[in-house]
Design goal:
single chain, 972 residues, five-stranded mixed β-sheet, globular, DNA recombination, DNA binding, 15 strands, 57% helix, Tn3 family transposase, transposition, alpha/beta
Length: 972
């Protein structure tokens, strides 16, 4: 059986590649006087050239010159120019192998290098162990190995030797991980883990498959079923802290592998590997189950509140006529009383004569009923209490909760409800905590007879939902609801990195200097805009006493550009989507990134891989794709999807296409690759997928999910994420900018109104991005200044107050720590922004970020008022994203464009597959658009280069997206 390979041919080539850029050639291969003196001791030009080339090889990459190999032409040229020797002399040096060996030995001694030996092999394996227990990624290990050999001044051996070292380190590291996961397991716990592979019921479903099946629609029945699974996992009593025994990257990988394997495969493992894999699967499953349980409760509470809100609105509407009648009577009575007082007559006689005393009393009674606190929609949520009680006692008992000081009262209330549920007591203790009860709930909870148990419990459940979101209360063993502190860089590591200036932030880290810079920027920008506003010379903008008005930009395409677009469209070849994908893969080899989960090898059947990717991208699914694509079957596609298609392989393949688009010569007409935009596109959840969709009031009452995509100015969609919650778009803006794998270096980013919050404005410049959202009703957003409002009389109506610089200074350390944690990938920006923006958390960090965000938003608004080119750039960037959404909608046409997958993982694959197919279409269109322009020019047409920016690679009329999906018999 052949040895497992860690590197693809292209990666092996990259490991031994020589620098191409001039500055890298100078850095590595510019000879010093000592170098030249040594080289010039050789007799003959061919020996001097050969000796110098061997010196270059040993300097970098650090390997000997391979026998019978030809150095890169650019290296020969660079060395020859320094020695004033023609590169043609190389041929003579290559003849004598003895001379090569002698020169190599002399250079090794002169450079103080040690030849690679078996003892070095063992030392390298031991050195890589610390890295191999964290990751199995071959390139990460290889970089660490090369750094170690260079540091130790050891001659670097052949790539196959390096690969064996990495493979040996991975093997030993994996065994060490297995031992770490199993060393504290008792024999009884190991037996319980083995039992997971046995059938649970007569249908043959194993315990492990039962634990990992998707939850159904959020309701009491499915919550209780979920709780049953969590209780089973908790009953396994795995050792505390086992999930921290190994690096999280390895733990997740082992869990993914175990999740893809059948119980039969797991049973065939030797005991150490089997028990470690099952332990990893259970740890991952436990966190997933807990997070899903909280999400289900969140959605149920939101659903019940929405029902109550609708009923309240319906009742209010239906009683509108009655309310109006009572108001008329009471208004008339009020007038009569006023007239009677002025005239000194008896008001009661006036009411009796004009309205009738009984009518007046009936009206007062009706008004009392209408004005009772139960008129608030929260009062109507009491109707959902019996349904909630079906699962909430078990829900509260299942979660292991801890609280910050600000929410300790709420946690005490949860503990009281737990005790009441266990003892079946009905009345609340007199000392029940009430500090967490907000004003809206107070009128319902506190009655003349005492606290209302039902409303108290509903209030606790509602506030618990909010506290879990914000992080004021956290859950043991959860991933999404951990302690806020656990997401951040450890304090010791943060202070060490700050001292060594390695935080990775793009701002001045000294608070005093940073704030002074912001004050100076504000003062300068305000004076500049005030001067132009007073002189009514703002470009396309006017400031008046009532506010600010900015003239909308118009989209105008020259007639010549319209004609060019038509000509190019006519020259675009007709192509099937299958042919398009294969052709793009021939250009980029993006399919090589879909590696096997365990072995790391690319898929052997490229056509089958493309078929599975296309099934995701066009929303057809594997079952229907198998029947629409001759030569495939569901089982083959399912196996390939399980082992080769996942989030990281999709990301790597997308990065390959993004890089190809970025480097395509024609892309320069659309931008320089430093700007981007992001936007969300909603897809309805249908069928079994409804249980995963969320209701967002912005889009009506039907559940659905959002595909949030980042697109570069080259039209390349370089990141996508499925948002399966009603969270604001702004929460996810930074994720795409920080976590994409492409070569793009984004400097400026655009969003629409939904993409901004003050917290995002604060974090963007800290992490090195200029943020430029197109904000609807920008004139309603106040400016915040450093100084007196009276200094800017023309802008006075726009100024909301003075920014709180002292608050920023007070929490500066926390701001830096949060930003560094996000920038270094310790936690995602979206997770932290959700917590910081969640009600009711109003902690110091959230408020300080808000103040900083107000300053950055003020600076942006002032620039927006002065810079019409900025407005044009933002509009152009957002237009590209909106046009890309139209293409995505056309591609994702099957199943009525609805998400019907029960598994959130499969829904993520739908989003990733769609983005990959769209990226392939865009790259293909870019290439053939370029060819069409060249064709027109060959025909003698004069094309103005300024018109090329109006062309777009987003058309699909020439692409056949429907029908049977037949692949060419032979892959080019």
């Amino acid at each position: 059986m052949p040895r497992k390979t860690l590197f693809t041919p292209s990666e092996r080539e990259a490991l031994t590649a020589f620098p191409q850029e001039d500055h890298d050639l100078v850095r590595h291969y510019l000879f010093s006087d000592a170098d030249l003196a040594l080289i010039n001791q050789r007799r003959g030009k061919h020996n001097r050239l050969g000796f110098a080339i061997q010196l270059c090889y040993l300097r970098y990459p650090g390997t000997p010159l391979p026998p019978d190999s030809e150095p890169p032409a650019h290296l020969l040229s660079f060395v020859g120019e320094q020695l004033e020797v023609s590169v043609t002399h190389w041929k003579r040096y290559a003849i004598r192998k003895t001379t090569r060996r002698e020169h190599l030995s002399e250079l090794i001694n002169w450079l103080g290098l040690a030849p690679f030996t078996l003892s070095h092999f063992r030392l390298c394996v031991q050195h890589l162990l610390a890295t191999s227990v964290q990751t199995e990624t071959g390139m990460v290990l290889m970089r660490a190995l090369l750094d170690y050999l260079r540091q130790k001044k050891v001659v670097i051996p052949r790539v196959d030797v390096l690969e064996r070292i990495c493979g040996e380190a991975i093997t030993l590291g994996t065994k060490r991980v297995y031992r770490a996961l199993t060393s504290e397991l008792s024999d009884g716990q190991k037996e319980q883990l083995d039992r997971l592979l046995l059938p649970r019921n007569q249908q043959g479903q194993t315990f492990i498959n039962w634990l990992r099946q998707p939850h159904g629609f959020p309701n009491a029945k499915h919550v209780l079923m979920h709780i049953e699974r969590i209780e089973y996992v908790q009953g396994l009593s795995l050792p505390d802290g086992l999930e921290k025994a190994v690096h999280q990257n390895r733990l997740r990988k082992i869990a993914r592998e175990g999740g893809q394997m059948t119980p039969q495969h797991l049973r065939d493992f030797e005991p150490l590997r089997r028990h470690a894999t099952l332990a990893a699967v259970i740890l991952d499953t436990r966190a997933t189950l807990i997070d899903e349980l909280i999400d289900m409760h969140d959605r149920i509470m939101a659903s019940k509140e929405n029902v109550a809100r609708r009923r309240h609105a319906e009742q209010f509407q239906s009683s509108g006529k009655h309310i109006n009648e009572q108001l008329k009577i009471l208004s008339q009575a009020g007038r009569l009383i006023q007239t009677a007082r002025e005239s000194g007559s008896n008001p009661f006689d006036a009411i009796e004569a004009s309205i009738g005393w009984q009518t007046f009393l009936d009206s007062v009674k009706s008004a009392e009923q209408l004005s009772q606190p139960e008129f608030d929609h929260l009062a109507l949520i009491i109707d959902a209490y019996p349904q909630l009680r079906r699962y909430t006692p078990a829900f509260l008992d299942t979660l292991e909760l801890k609280a910050a000081t600000v929410s300790q009262s709420l946690l005490d209330a949860v503990n009281i409800l737990r005790r009441l549920n266990r003892t079946k007591a009905r009345r609340l203790p007199e000392d029940s905590p009430t500090d967490f009860i907000r004003k809206r709930w107070a009128s319902l909870v506190f009655t003349e007879e005492g606290m209302n148990r039902r409303y108290y419990e509903l209030c606790v459940l509602s506030e618990l939902k909010n506290a879990l979101r914000s992080g004021d209360i956290w859950v043991r063993h959860s991933r999404q609801f951990m302690d806020f502190e656990d997401y951040l860089l450890p304090l010791e590591k943060f202070h060490a990195q700050r001292s060594s200036q390695e935080l990775g932030v793009a701002i001045e880290t000294d608070c005093e200097r940073f704030l002074q810079q912001k004050k100076d920027q504000l003062a300068s920008a305000l004076r500049h805009v005030e001067l132009h506003a007073a002189g009514n010379s703002l470009p396309g903008a006017v400031v008046t006493a009532s506010g600010m008005r900015i003239t909308p930009l118009t989209n105008s395409v020259p007639e010549e550009a319209e004609n060019l677009i038509k000509k190019v469209s006519a020259l675009m070849p007709k192509v099937k989507i299958t042919e398009l994908l294969l052709e793009v893969d021939r250009w980029t080899d993006f399919s090589r990134h879909f590696t096997h989960l365990k072995g790391g090898q690319p898929a052997s059947d490229r056509v089958m891989l493309m078929t599975a990717v296309l099934a995701d991208g066009i929303n057809l699914g594997l079952t229907k794709m198998a029947s629409s694509c001759p030569g495939t079957s569901y089982s083959k596609l399912s196996w390939l999807q399980a082992w080769h298609i996942r989030d990281d392989t999709y990301s790597a393949a997308l990065a390959e296409l993004t890089n190809a688009q970025h480097h395509h010569p024609f892309s320069r007409w659309w931008g320089d690759g430093t700007t981007s935009s992001s936007d969300g596109q909603r897809f309805k959840a249908g069928g079994r997928g409804e249980s995963k969709g969320h209701v967002n009031a912005k889009y009506g009452r039907e559940p659905g999910s959002m595909f949030y995509t980042h697109i570069s100015d080259h039209y390349a969609p370089f990141h996508t994420r499925i948002i399966n919650s009603p969270a604001r778009d702004a929460t996810y803006v930074l994720d795409g900018l920080l976590n994409h794998e492409s070569e793009l270096d984004i400097e400026e980013h655009y969003t629409d109104t939904a993409g901004f919050t003050d917290h995002v404005f604060a974090l963007m410049p800290i992490l090195g991005f200029k943020f430029a959202p197109r904000i609807r009703d920008l004139s309603d957003k106040r400016l915040y200044i450093a100084g007196k409002k009276s200094d800017y009389p023309t802008l006075g109506g726009l100024i909301g107050g003075e920014a709180n610089f002292d608050y920023i200074s007070l929490h500066w350390e926390e701001i830096l720590r949060l930003s560094a944690s996000i920038g270094k990938g310790a936690v995602t920006a979206s997770l932290m922004l959700r917590k910081l923006g969640s009600y009711p958390r109003q902690n110091g960090l959230a408020l300080a970020l808000r103040e900083l965000g107000r300053i950055e938003r003020t600076l942006f608004t002032l620039e927006w008022m002065m810079d019409i080119d900025l407005r044009r750039r933002v509009q152009a960037g957002l237009n590209k994203g909106e046009a890309k959404n139209a293409l995505s909608r056309a591609v994702f046409f099957n199943r009525l464009g609805e998400l019907r997958d029960r598994s959130f993982e499969n829904q993520r694959y739908r989003a990733s597959g769609l983005n990959l197919v769209v990226a392939a279409i865009i790259l293909w269109n870019t290439e053939y658009t370029s060819q069409a322009i060249e064709t027109l020019r060959r025909r003698g047409e004069k094309i103005n280069d300024e018109l090329l920016s109006h062309l777009s690679p987003l058309g699909w009329e020439h692409i056949n997206l429907t029908g049977d999906y037949i692949w060419p018999n032979q892959i080019p």
